[in-house]
Amino acid sequence: MIATRPTTKSLSLGFLGVGWIGRNRMEAILNHTTAEATALTEPNSENSDEALKSAKNAVLKTSPEALFAEENLDGIVIATPSAMHAEQSMHALKSGKAVFCQKPLGRTAEEVKQVVEASRKADKLLAVDLSYRYTEAFKAIYNTIQKGEIGDIFAVDLKFHNAYGPDKEWFYDINCSGGGCVMDLGIHLVDLALWSLNFPEISEVKSQLYHKGQKLTSFEEHVEDFASVAMTSGKDQTINLECSWHVSAGKDAIIEATFYGTKGGASFRNINGSFYDFQAEKYHGTQTETLVTPPDEWSGRAGVVWVENMIKNNGFDEQSATEFIKTAEVIDRIYGR
């Protein structure tokens, strides 16, 4: 089940963007909480028609501005192209709504800081759909690390290779996306690593970015489709990241986050190239202990948790806001910004 506990208070939500991802998040929230879809905005009529089948009582608004102006909304779920995330999140927060936004929250750390400040001033909850945190597999890895079961972490290996790539042109425009495969895929794993290590200061970042096999000298010309990044924390922990689009991986995807500690190791990884099925393992020498296996209905869980947190406290969350900024600052350094 997606929901970790039943919600008891009905919230009124608006949905900005109900394409495949936006609709998936909306359906998860409606199916696993008592929240109601009151209004939605979507420029594509096929998408909006499909969404209204699940949100039968929702009113279709003609523009984001009309959605923000709805006074009875408690929160807004944003699933639009990346270039719009920061501005739309700030507008929603300033209009008194909590926000659940697809990643990235902003194309740069500066944009993320502006959204966080809007959340602080409005005293409204801000959340980002960093969905892998909410998989049962990674929760097992996180708990293993936090309990000290594999000792002190000294190295982390992160991989996200996608044999395909985005099918929308805006992903390949740096001004719209903020970056290529690192911004699209790598950000998930950077977040997992930093979160698991309790967000240490990152003392050094070295990155090599490629476009169609050619090393990029200016990321402004092209977005990267392959990245190799070496990071070092202030605690001398090594964090290595590789990610790509359109790579010859021999399967649909390779997704892994492996942690090496003084007492053992632990790994979160996909199974058989799947984008959805994940397994958690703990290692000691040559021995492997399987912690979690599929199935796990995780894809909409972050939105469900956001609703649950709104019911408990719909105000500004300093801890998560600080984490959003720290991750964005690391991403900026990967791009040399």
TrEMBL record:
Q: Which Pfam families match?
A: GFO_IDH_MocA, GFO_IDH_MocA_C3
Its domain of life reads Bacteria
Family annotation (InterPro entries): Gfo/Idh/MocA-like_OxRdtase_N (IPR000683), Gfo/Idh/MocA_oxidrdct_glycsds (IPR050463), GFO_IDH_MocA-like_dom (IPR055170), NAD(P)-bd_dom_sf (IPR036291)
- This protein's UniProt keywords: Oxidoreductase
Start and end residues of each GFO/IDH/MocA-like oxidoreductase domain? 139-266
Gfo/Idh/MocA-like oxidoreductase N-terminal domain mapped to chain residues: 13-129
One of the record's GO molecular function terms = nucleotide binding
Query: What protein am I looking at?
Result: Predicted dehydrogenase
Q: Which organism is it from?
A: Salinimicrobium sediminis
